[in-house]
Structure formats: C-alpha cells, structure tokens
Amino acid sequence: MSKESGTKKAKNKESQLVIRLDKELRDQFVAACKDVDTSASREIRRFMKSYLLRYERGEID
Predict the structure, then answer these.
(1) Which end of the chain is more exposed for a tag (fewer CB within 10 A), N or C?
(2) Dist CA 33 CA 26 (whole Å)
(3) pTM metric for this prediction
C-alpha cells in the first residue's frame, strides 16, 4: 500500500524522533506494550502528549 493511499497509519506522520536506549529497556517496553495490546509508538506518543499538558499547566519545573 502506498503513502498516497491515505492509510490511517501514514496519514498524520510528518516526522520521526530517534532516541538511543538500552536494548534491554527497549525489549522490555515493547513486550509490555504487546502484553496489553498496544504499540510502543502509541504509548510514547501518549506519554509525550501527557507530558506537554503537564508542562503547559506549569506542573513541570
């Protein structure tokens, strides 16, 4: 399926964030996400949105 087809997954993705982390941490996180039927990407996006809300409220120093 091409990007032009407007798939839900590719539709809103305009950039990427590359991070370095320990393989063990990554593997544990991916496994935990799979265990609760979600994706690592979805949970990281959820964390980022939550963090920004807290930041905007002045809850983060």
Answers:
(1) C
(2) 11
(3) 0.74
